Amino acid sequence: MPLTDDQVALLQAFIDDKPAGIYDAWDLVPKEYHEYFASPTVHGEAFKKAVDRNLFKSVVWVGVGKNSKHQRYSLHGAAVPDDEKLLR
Fold this sequence. Notes:
Layout: H1 5-17, E1 21-24, H2 40-52, E2 59-65, E3 71-75, E4 86-87
Antiparallel strand pairs: 1-3, 2-3, 2-4
C-alpha cells in the first residue's frame, strides 16, 4: 500500500528535523505514529517506492544493510561511513 499524502507530509517534517546520517526507513517514523503506519516491512517497501518517486527532499537510498537486510537511506547528503556494510 503506498504512503498517503498526509503520511508523506508527516514523514518529511520529521526528516527535516533529523540530523544528517544513515537511517533505516522505520527510524524515520516518529515513535508516537508507529501505530498509524503498516508493519516495518510493509512500510519499508512503501517508503522505498516513495523515495524512488522523489516524494521526499534530502532522502537518498544507499543500499541494504548487510547484517540487518533493511533498506538504508542517507539524509541531508550524509556520506555512507566506510564501516557501513551495505549490499547494493
